Amino acid sequence: MSGKPKLHYFNGRGRMETIRWLLAAAGVEFEESYLEKKQDLTKLQKDGSLLFQQVPMVEMDGMKLVQTRAIANYISTKYNLYGKDMKERALIDMYVEGMFDLNELLMTYEIQPADKKEQHFANMMDKAENRYFPVFEKVLKDHGKDFLVGNQLSRADIQLLEVILMVEEWKPDIFAKFPLLQSFKARLSNIPTIKKFLQPGSQRKPPSDDDVVDKVMKIFYS
């Protein structure tokens, strides 16, 4: 087996995408093993690979890591993306938890029943525009640095860029009133490892189409 982390998930964004972003930003090559059908998930569950019977799961450093936040914490600590002291880490945790909350709304939009989609979309865009992005605009203004915390790249920056780009796919003009987030996006997107991840052909996943949603429903909900 190679020394590369191996990611077990379906071929789509979901809860694994943040983990892909963190590894890519850290310049870490990784492999992926895709769940294609329910039996693939069942096999991992039966062979004891999944502590709580759920994916994402990442094989890394001799461990089978599960639970999205635990995996992200490990990667962030290992690759120096978690601040220089406890106070910085506390800020990073606060910001990231807000991003996870918004990301949950974005992620679950595609699997909403048809009659709930419009309401869900309106709610997630309202929260993005009026609750979450104003906070990060203010953080950048008050902190006055290139990054959200301290003066170096952290997981908070990487996860914010991920969310910015996702929201932009639905509402390209949403950042017109957030000039600092616009310049943050441009700055972060030019970091070499991130720039590479944003190129076509990388392991970054596109927005989920109907085929991906259908596969997800069959793997996890049938």
Mind sketching the topology for me?
Blueprint: E1 6-9, H1 17-25, E2 31-34, H2 38-46, E3 57-60, E4 63-66, H3 68-78, H4 86-108, H5 114-143, H6 155-170, H7 179-189, H8 192-197, H9 210-220
Parallel strand pairs: 1-2
Antiparallel strand pairs: 1-3, 3-4
Helix pairs in contact: 1-3, 1-6, 4-5, 4-6, 5-7, 6-7
Notes on the protein architecture:
- The chain has helices at residues 17-25, 38-46, 68-78, 86-108, 114-143, 155-170, 179-189, 192-197, 210-220, and strands at residues 6-9, 31-34, 57-60, 63-66.
- With 222 residues, it is an alpha+beta fold.
- A four-stranded mixed beta sheet has the order 2-1-3-4, with helices on one face.
- Helix 1 links the parallel strand 1 and strand 2 (31-34).
- Helix 1 packs across helix 6 and helix 4 packs parallel to helix 6 (155-170).
- The chain is globular.
- The model has no long low-confidence stretch (mean pLDDT 95).
In short:
This protein has 222 residues and is an alpha+beta fold.
Structural classification: alpha+beta
CA radius of gyration:
18 Å
User: What coarse outline follows from CA principal-axis ratios?
Assistant: globular
**Largest sheet composition:** 4 strands, mixed
Separation of termini? 33 Å
Into which percent range does the helicity of residues fall? Answer: 55-70%
> What is the mean pLDDT?
95
The helix count comes to 9
Q: Largest sheet, order of strands side by side?
A: 2-1-3-4
Contiguous low-pLDDT stretches (5 residues minimum) are none
What share of residues are in beta strands? 5-15%
Order of helices and strands: EHEHEEHHHHHHH
> Using DSSP, what is the number of strands?
4
